[in-house]
């Protein structure tokens, strides 16, 4: 454990109103839950200090962004930013694990797979896929991104399974914009 994290952890523990021991069973459950995902990403985890990122996500930081997490775990911000935003890795093994868990834990005879396109307002245009288009959230044409979400739904429960960000034709044809947004060549 890094010195910065150890000091922060001690400060947090001193301020606890509830003994941190109360949360140990949850941490064990989280570890059990995460194990299949860790195994699915073994080659990726070898390339990136993923455990430091998870440490930041599970911390008590008010705003969990690359800069704050990097300071917490005592790593240069750009290393965290690259891992979070631009490091190439394949999410399909994680989705396969998730789909299997949802089927095992939530699967029902009346369960269905539902697809939902949603639009998200964005300021400016540098975020990948942003363009002026109908934005239902705002009820008008405005800058927004479009995502398509795949979920499992039954009478008993629901779960998000996968999602894709839509890439407008203007983005697909603009090589400079694609490079600036780190859009892989295989994405059309």
Key descriptive features of the protein:
alpha+beta, single chain, 9 helices, 20% strand, 188 residues, 4-stranded antiparallel sheet
Write a structural description.
- This protein has 188 residues and is α+β, with helices and mostly antiparallel strands.
- The protein has two domains: 3-86, no CATH class; 92-180, no CATH class.
- It is built from nine helices and four strands.
- It has helices at residues 3-15, 24-40, 42-47, 50-57, 66-73, 77-86, 92-106, 169-173, 175-180, and strands at 112-121, 131-135, 140-153, 158-165.
- Strands 1, 2, 3 and 4 form a four-stranded antiparallel beta sheet that branches.
Give the topology.
Blueprint (H helix, E strand, L loop, with lengths): L2 H13 L8 H17 L1 H6 L2 H8 L8 H8 L3 H10 L5 H15 L5 E10 L9 E5 L4 E14 L4 E8 L3 H5 L1 H6 L8
Antiparallel strand pairs: 1-3, 2-3, 3-4
Helix pairs in contact: 4-5, 5-6
